[in-house]
Amino acid sequence: MSFPILSSILLAPVLGVLIILFIPQKEDKVIKIVAALATGLTVILSLIAYAYYDQSIGGLQFVEHIPWIDELGVAYGLGVDGISLPLVLLTAIVIFTGVFASWGLEKRVKEFFIFLLALVAGVFGVFLTTDLFFFYLFFEIAVIPMYILIGVWGSTNKEYSAMKLTIYLLVGSAFALIVIIAVYLYTGLGTFDIQTLTQQTYDIGFQKFAFLLLMVGFGFLVPMWPLHTWSPDGHVAAPTAVSMLHAGVLMKLGGYGLIRAGIFIFPEGAKFWAPVIAILCIVNVVYGAMVAMAQKDLKFVIGYSSVSHMGYVLLGVASLNTLSISGAVAQMFAHGIMTALFFALVGNVYNKAHTRMIADFGGLAHQMPRIAAGFVIAGLASLGLPGLVNFVAEFAIFVGSFRVYPVLTILAISGIVITAVYVLRVVQNVFFGPRNPKWDGLEDVRGIELVPIVILCGVLLFLGFFPSLLMELINNGVDPFVQQYLTTPKVGGMF
Amino acid sequence: MIESIGIKYIWLVPLAPLLAFILITFLFKRFQLLSALTAIFSMVVSFILTFDILRVILTGHEITMNTPVEIAVPWLNINGLYIEMGALIDPLTAGMLFVVTFISLLIMIYSVGYMHGDPGFSRFFSYLALFVFSMLGLVIANNYFQMFVFWELVGLSSYLLIGFYFYKDSAAQANKKAFITNRVADFGFMIGVIILFLYFGTFNFLELAEGISASTDLAFLTLAGILVFIGPIGKSGQFPLHVWLPDAMEGPTPVSALIHAATMVAAGVFLLARGFVLFASASATITFIAYLGGFTAFFAATIAITQRDFKRILAFSTLSQLGYMVMAIGLGSLTAGMFHLTTHAFFKALMFLCAGSVIHALHKQDIFEMGGVFKKMKITGTTMVIGGLAIAGIPPFAGFWSKDEILLVAKTNGFTFLYVLASITAFLTAFYMFRLIFLAFFGEKRSDYHAHESPLTMTIPLMILAVFSIFGGLIGAPFLEHGFAYYVYFGEPHHPHPDYLIMGSSTLIAAAGIFLAWLVYIKKAISAEKIANQFAPLYKFLYNKWYIDEIYQWFFNKVVLSISALLNWCDRNIVDGIAHGIAWLIRTTGAKGRYIHTGSLQTYGLVIFAAVVVIVLFLAGPVVGGVQ
User: Fold this and answer.
1) Maximum CA pair distance of chain A?
2) How many C-beta atoms surround the C-beta of residue B404 within 10 A?
3) Which of A96, A327, A403, B313 has the least CB density, counted as fewest CB within 10 Å?
4) pTM for the full model?
């Protein structure tokens, strides 16, 4: 057996936790360095996995499989394909930059990083595992630290938001759990292995039932309108690194689950419910963007913009073809990087100015030109400007979904106009205009604070110019499934 | 293969300025002169390569509109979405490349003087380089996707440059307006590109041209043509999406000259020429283009005669001239549209640079506060008059030839109404332009200013452009055997025959406009104020730009923002309210059972979870039960 690279990715943050446990509280610099090293390791390992993933073979690679509870058929199984690998890479990049975005943290540093790394281990697990049981388990592992991180280190209504977020996510996962148990019982194969379950056939009634529950359950996570109200509150309350991870990665678990467990296991159910997703996702896109326009708090703007942008992911999912689903996965990656960048920037401003109210600012580009440049880049990514990876993802979704839902796609494309309006208004009101002496004391980002901004901007631009590096891998993962399960009916009865 | 360094290294044409942008942004920012020289050097490289391409086309006669050279590399290829980045080289590309590189080079040289002492000097040159990269990428594009990508990037450069003085509220307002207006247009353009791709399976111009020629689906072609045309409506400032261009004058004047007069705004016209086969395939589309262009030309000219700001008058003039170009293409003459684009680039860039020279010296923009500037600024004044004569259409200046060709097309193709409208517009053009020239440069000094001629880095570009404004039109003069029409055409070249009736009448019309301006503003035989008072409602209507901005502002403030606020309220109170209601219901139920009194999260979660399980098992009973 070759080097267990995926287990290493999963265990790197756990190792970080173990080391930090033994570092005294007052050595907060050392704790941060350990966290940076542990997450930096995940970036390197993910890049190695990317480099060595063989697209000519495709499918799950770097597979590890260790039986665990034999009686139940639960196994510790890891593997990545073109769908999960980009999301693993996304997680690694976001958490690595998130650690640097938390460099200025002073309150209970040790506990913060322990929970943060535990959280990210859970997130990695969800993307890496090939077993539905573990999929659920890892998700729960991610949610609990999230609750504590927001409740303790958050701001603005943090107890309420933490509670709300946790309940919504738990309820969502409960729906998924029902399907996990139901499908386990239904097949009677005694396995939770996703690949095995995907290859089975299910009768149409069961598919409709199972997909509906997954749609609602993962709909909480994505979040799909009207299950979204936890997310802006959660974003706003969370500390910077948690917002980054949460909006950047955790929301993607919903889209990922919907594709991996929803569409590919229950394709007929997906076809039945897809129009509902398609309609709701347009509400996400347009309504989310319109509500974002009305916000006064910077983090709320970004929170609602996420609701709007995740609508594109859902549109790609609902259109059920290779191009649209590939676009959806790419959009998850692109949005993750972009929104992490937004939160890193806003977090930085908030730490220094102690306000996030748009009306309090103006002319901030004088004092913080680098923050302004970063914000403009994130904003341009958000409004889908070519040259940034988000554009390619959105374009693929639009082309893919236009065939299926022409009218809804046109409505979705109108989102790029509304996004431009609210993004540029924020840029104008916060960064442009005459110099405001009130903020003369603010220092622009420098030194270590620059790390997240440079990396995240770099990724957006690099993949914006060379999108095939990302898109071909994703397409390689999505296409076989679509060819196999969505082009021909996959129905079968047990009886 | 044709031997040409320019064609072999065509990639460098856009990439040289991109490299300059990167170098300036990340390395040279602190060294102002080095930044400027880097940008200028990159332009020299692009210009030389372009010149070589032009040489091959003019001397070789091998590359024609119907036998272009195409070079491309795949950029993205997933599941049928095949996208290339490439170069399509034909006389249309070469002509446009020449215009862009030549004027960019001159304007960069000019900017060394104009931007001298500005704290953002290096930033200015980096943005300019970014713009030129985007524009050249657009010009060489061999497919609609690439065109769209660079179309958006020129929009970005325009946004950055309009907002160059970001500390001015008006500039920050203007660049946002420009971007959003263009976004509205690009919304249509993007849908057009997508449906073209889905229908024909390609973005490539040449392949699409074949497909479109063979297609008989008129309804589709009309729809696609109109949707794609929405892009140029925004970018080339056609009514009703013209509102951003006058405000874009908040940018530094060299930017107004380069981007908002000579090159970027002409990208829409260029797209109409490049995709001509699509627009020409449906008579409804092409007629719509012609009338919209004609109307814009007239509409903008009526506004220009009332404005007071030097640059804004030029901006409305640009809108009007862009209307001419769009109309020309709509009338079916790619040649006339592109010819006017070329001559306009020379004389409008010239006039904007003159404006910059005057503003640089006087620090004023209101022409009613100027007067007599000619005495202090002989070079600027002379070149400005040359520009004015060119745009008015006095022979043999550049604008005369190109405008006449448009009039000729309108007449020969039987669009009498547009012919008359264009002639009226020509009269208005001559009038407002010489109103500007007489008020600013001649007559008595009307306010306290100190003027001096600008430095040589600024006046040399003026003189070069003046030469082109005088003689540039001769390349398309009907007396020339192998003129502009011999190279740039659609289908077959149509050699224009001199129509002395049109030449004579248009010259008279232009002269009449100038004469009227002279009567009003120099001779003062007619009082402008009296007329304005007499027709006060009309004057106010024109001065306020037909109140289009006010209508949009009202729509945005009252409609869009209200909907936004309403939805926000719904989100907080209805959507979230229901969620709270459910939570309350569960809590109350739980409290009755004295379970959830603790308020602990786990208990809440458990209750919700249990409830969901029960409901679902109840619903799913038959299915799951069947397995046992």
Assistant:
1) 76
2) 27
3) A403
4) 0.91
